Amino acid sequence: QNARMSSTARPTGSPSADSIIIGNDSLPPARTADAASAVAYVQPAPPNRQAGDVYKQMFRIVDDLHTVVEERNAAMRAVRHAHRRAIRRLILIASRREAGGAAHCLRVGAISAVIAQALGQPVAWCNMIFDAAAVHDLGNISIPDAILYKTGRLTEREWVIVRDHPLVGANILGSSTSPLESLAAEIALNHHERWDGGGYPAQRKGTNIPLAARIVSVADFVDSLCSSSDYREVLAEDQVFELLELSSGSHFEPAVVQAMQAQRPQLARIRERAAECAAKLGTDIDYPPWWQVA
Fold first, then answer.
1. Among 118, 166, 192, 220, which residue's CB has the most CB atoms within a 10 Å radius?
2. In this structure, are strands 20-22 and 41-42 parallel, antiparallel, or unpaired?
3. Contacts of 134 by beta carbon, 8 Å cutoff, 6+ apart
4. Is the pTM above the cut of 0.85?
């Protein structure tokens, strides 16, 4: 029976049923029994298909894919822009509970960005921390005025309320798929932690504290002490940096302190740009990441 099946094989010269046809090219599988018969067959294109149509279709598919990618990227840019605008509107809320107002919020964002750049972070991440750090104390809205603006020492009960504000800020910002909003929540929750583990609310220590929060804690310390406040005397910049150096390794990560020291010459320009931006914040929130030219 096998012999009979073999004798009825298709004769040489007719294309096999499993040939691969691309345009008008047809390549049949090789016949090992007869090496001379392993040749390429030429089959005319079907009447309704011209040579090269398949390639034209492939080009159209690739072009369509490019269009889809461009549309997707445009949509993602629009979403990122919306998230950035939302965070900047929250600056207006946070600034009402900050002694230094909107200018302090903006300065902390810009100082954090230049520190991050000095630490070798990508510009895109520096741009994110520029906005995210500005709402670091959003949770202050939960602290009563009598405690927030108190000039004397806080009682233990008052300290309990104050120590809850990072949790409040993180909950307001919430868990989000937006990288910017997630970073802002991370900073709000952790920027009062200390390098030696003595901070709050979770007593995180060392590199268990997210890098963004380690950066913002230094930026907030420097700007707060250099600025006037209802409950703290403004200090000379030299004094502030002496205190910063003394706190290196306890309150703050030494590498972040070193980066802040290196960026000290930028502080004057940052203060100037922050004042300009804060003056227009109520009507213009589409400002560029001006820290880059600070």
1. 166
2. unpaired
3. 87, 88, 91, 94, 105, 106, 108, 109
4. no
